[in-house]
Design brief:
Elements: H1 3-31, H2 33-43, H3 50-53, H4 55-75
């Protein structure tokens, strides 16, 4: 296989991987909607104070997303 052909195949693989990762994130956000809503409610009307005032909600959302994304990655290595 030539260098150009190999480069094209790698490019296609990267595009497919990016699309799959995007779909996984979209699905995880839907499944973690409860935590996203709690975070959004906490963050409403705040600026820098979000960092410390919404820490609990951010951790819950990130935990949910991490769990779903890492489980999916383990199923589809």
């Amino acid at each position: 296989m030539g260098y150009v052909q190999e480069a094209r195949e790698n490019h296609v693989k990267k595009k497919v991987e990016e699309a799959l990762r995007s779909k996984m994130k979209e699905k995880a956000l839907k499944e973690c909607d409860y935590f996203a809503a709690k975070y959004a409610e906490c963050a409403s009307g705040k600026t820098l104070s979000i960092v410390w005032l919404c820490r609990k909600q951010a951790k819950e959302l990130n935990g949910c997303l991490h769990q779903l994304l890492s489980e999916d990655e383990q199923r589809h290595p």
